[in-house]
Specification:
- It contains three helices and eleven strands, in the order αβαββαββββββββ.
- It is mostly beta strands and about 230 residues long.
- It has one domain.
- A hairpin with a 7-residue loop joins β4 and β5.
- The longest helix is centred in the first third of the chain and has 19 residues.
- The chain is elongated, with a radius of gyration of 22 Å.
- About 25% of the residues are buried.
């Protein structure tokens, strides 16, 4: 995860410098700090650092921690494990996507259309996402079976969005909607347990899931330098 974050930072610095060299005296280049209000409501707390170039291009790096308020997984101690059959086929595998928490980060490129007289403008953006959702001793199973499951999970995503910026002298309010794809890679483990004097062995296995996603939300940015008319 650290190597991915470092790569994102390095690429963004190189790209930003190449754009800035076109016109080093441009006063339209600016730095903004922000948060995604919608993501914070579901527990994904990331600080956004945006570098806007000539009001047309913008590159954003965001990093933080996803507490994942949508995690409704139930802790299930090892001593409560039940009869073992083909639990993987009987259970809702997709539910793992919403389990666990961990570090999160994203890289965003924006193309901004010209501002109107009221300072609002439309934009298109592409976002690369990496986050981890790890958990320990969660309930997994149904139909009379149960296992205590722990997992280390990584989520990769790509999203294409469109929306509108509302600009003031000191801040930007951004409304967006888009579609994308998410890919989940899970490394899972079930501990062994004793059933009626018989020791059932532990099991380690991998699971993956790819699914479309719908994104929408509100982002607030604070300008580090007031915008002048």
């Amino acid at each position: 995860m650290k190597s991915i974050f470092c790569s994102i930072v390095l690429v963004s610095i190189i790209i930003s410098n190449s754009w800035a060299q076109e016109d080093l005296s441009s006063k339209k280049n600016e730095l903004l700090l922000g948060i995604n209000i919608t993501q914070c409501m579901v527990g994904d707390f990331e600080l956004h650092v945006m570098y806007s170039i000539k009001s047309k291009h913008a590159f954003t790096i965001a990093a933080g921690y996803d507490k994942n308020f949508l995690d409704f997984g139930r802790h299930w101690p090892e001593d409560k494990q039940g009869h073992l059959e083909s639990v993987e086929q009987e259970s809702n595998d997709e539910g793992r996507y919403f389990w666990g928490n961990g570090p999160a980060g994203r890289f965003i490129y924006d193309y901004n259309f010209p501002r109107k007289a009221n300072r609002s403008n439309y934009f298109l953006s592409a976002t690369l996402i990496v986050k981890e959702h790890n958990y320990k001793n969660y309930f997994f199973g149904d139909r009379g079976t149960s296992r205590s499951e722990s997992g280390n999970q990584r989520i990769y995503g790509l999203t294409m969005c469109g929306g509108k910026n509302f600009n003031t002298s000191h801040c930007v309010f951004r409304f967006y909607v888009g579609v994308g794809i998410r890919h989940l890679e899970s490394s899972l483990s079930w501990p062994g347990y004793n059933r009626n004097g018989t020791l059932l062995p532990a099991k380690d296995f991998n699971y993956s899931l790819t699914a479309p996603s719908l994104d929408f939300g509100i982002v607030f940015y604070f300008r580090t330098r007031a915008l002048k008319d």
